[in-house]
Amino acid sequence: MYLNEFLVVAMIHLLAVISPGPDFAVVIRNSVSAGRKTGLITAAGIGAGIFLHVAYSLLGIGIIVSQSVWLFNALKLLAGAYLLYIGIKALRARPQASTGEVALAAVAMPARKAFVNGFITNGLNPKATLFFLSVFTLVVSPQTPLLIQAGYGIYLAAATGLWFCLVALLFSQPRVRSSFARMGHWFDRLMGAVLVALGLHLALSEWLKRA
């Protein structure tokens, strides 16, 4: 009975999740810099972050946030500030001592930190909040039982986590990592610049619209 609705939700989500953004940048950086395990844990954190947006939508909190200018802008500033924080840390990466060979040694990153990286990057993203709010208000029928809607949410979280696990597996391949390793600290700085740009865009998006 709800198969068609689910397929529409799944298709819209697929198109959204494969679009490059902050989540994509964080998974790539952690996978290349710290290895496969760290990349997979980061992906799991992103998947867990989806539950926040689903909860917002099902509980009606998302509507309150989206309609409150100061709450929504505060969320943007928090998300932008976090991306700026991890981006600036990456920009400050220093050259490693040269050994004459390209090293693939992973930079140590605690599992908890990797998970939090993914969770906060996704959980604070106001664009994700708006996306899920749109899905659960415009695509999902009000007559759809809450249990079914919760099932959609579980699928969306699992599918998001799986997608970024695939991204982590790809970018943690030895051949791929060795290619980035040749860039040395410049890779960290490049990803840092991307994260800073995303953070600034997110934090200043409202001001840019008015300019």
Automatic annotation (TrEMBL):
One of its GO terms (cellular component) is plasma membrane. The chain crosses the membrane at residues 6-28, 40-64, 70-88, 154-174, 186-204. Keywords: Cell membrane, Membrane, Transmembrane, Transmembrane helix. GO terms for molecular function: amino acid transmembrane transporter activity. Coiled coil: none annotated. It comes from the Bacteria. It is a multi-pass membrane protein. It is found in: Cell membrane. This is LysE family translocator. It comes from Halopseudomonas bauzanensis. The lineage of its organism: Bacteria, Pseudomonadati, Pseudomonadota, Gammaproteobacteria, Pseudomonadales.
